# Entry
Amino acid sequence: MYPPESRFDDVANINLTDLAFWAQPFGDRDAAFAALRKAPHPVHFREPAMPGYPHGSGYYALVNHADIAEVSRRPQDFRSTPTAISIVDLPQEFSNFFGSMINMDNPQHARMRRIVSRAFGRGMAAEFEVASQKAARQIVDDLIANGPGDFVRQAAAIMPIAVLSGMMGIPSSDYEFIYDRSNIIVGTFDPEYVPRLDQATPALLRTSRELGDYISALAADRTKNPTDDLVTRLVRAEIDGERLTPEELSSFFILLVIAGMETTRNALSRGLVLLTDHPDQRELLLSDFEAHAPRAVEEILRVATPINWMRRTATRDCEVNGHKFKKDDKVLLFYWSANRDEKVFPNPYEFDITRDPNPHMTFGSIGPHFCLGAHLARMEVTVFFRELFSRLPHIRTEGEPRRLVASFVEAIKHVQCVF
# Structure
């Protein structure tokens, strides 16, 4: 980990909107956020220039743990509509695919969350653990059979796809379909997945439509031929006589691809990199996995921070910890920065698997939008590393990871593993 340097005394030299900012070394990024946390008020940034989109009024960057926590617990003052996952306001045609509960406010958000919780809440923990163990076992079997290679492609990306697909009744032959489309959704601005910027919007729409059509066909089949899988439960889940509409089911599936699969995928890949780069922490974890795993997983999640930020929009003129905002001001909640706030985390740039307490914001902060599947993601990461290190205790990454070109998702695209 890299301690921040003082070269960003002038925050005017920082541009959080530029994708180049997110591609720079972590030490440079951390130094910039450290400077922003010291600023007396949230800094205002311009919105990204997007072909076909009007230039918006910009946004305020909330970078302190306390400010993000305060905004998160005040949905009456800061709404998630029209979107929580885009700086620019998306065209209406995107709403069918990205109109999930992450982009909703109450009462619509509460209604959808209650329905989904019936099929996806804590009551699923035991079944989810069995599915995770089965997926992890098969992935490590394949790793051993195939030998060293791209850890993301062979393991980290497959784990969440295999777990959720297994529970949803999606055949393994369709894993490639989901993997390719998830890469485009989170890597819309990465030339490896979408070569040109002017192709970004069409590619995102096409990919979202394909995923929506896929889950719609699956849901239609389960309506006629119900099984005991997660799709059947989502189709049948009912609260006060209400069920998910086909559009809501499609948008929830896309949310699973972005939030559920990507969070786990990137925690696993970054986790192995961290444990490779910090052999003392790796040795401690493997000395008694069950004793150290709970805190180790929390520290991996804190440092990895797979979702860098979420957006909120002010519903009215209001004040947050002395900062004044006007109605319709956009604010971005930078979880990456909050997870390194010196006022909350002693030695925040150290990777310490014994860290306690560890109030990271990787799953958001306390409020209506705290991640519904946080407990499942923690379990999945724990189960995977238990299986991996019990059978390949000397596995490590080799070489420099290749990172995704993006600001919303913090991801490793490729990293080689050896054992």
Q: What stands out?
A: The longest strand covers residues 396-403. The two ends are 24 Å apart (CA to CA). The mean pLDDT is 92. The beta strands are 43-45, 59-62, 78-79, 149-150, 309-314, 318-320, 323-325, 330-334, 396-403, 412-418.
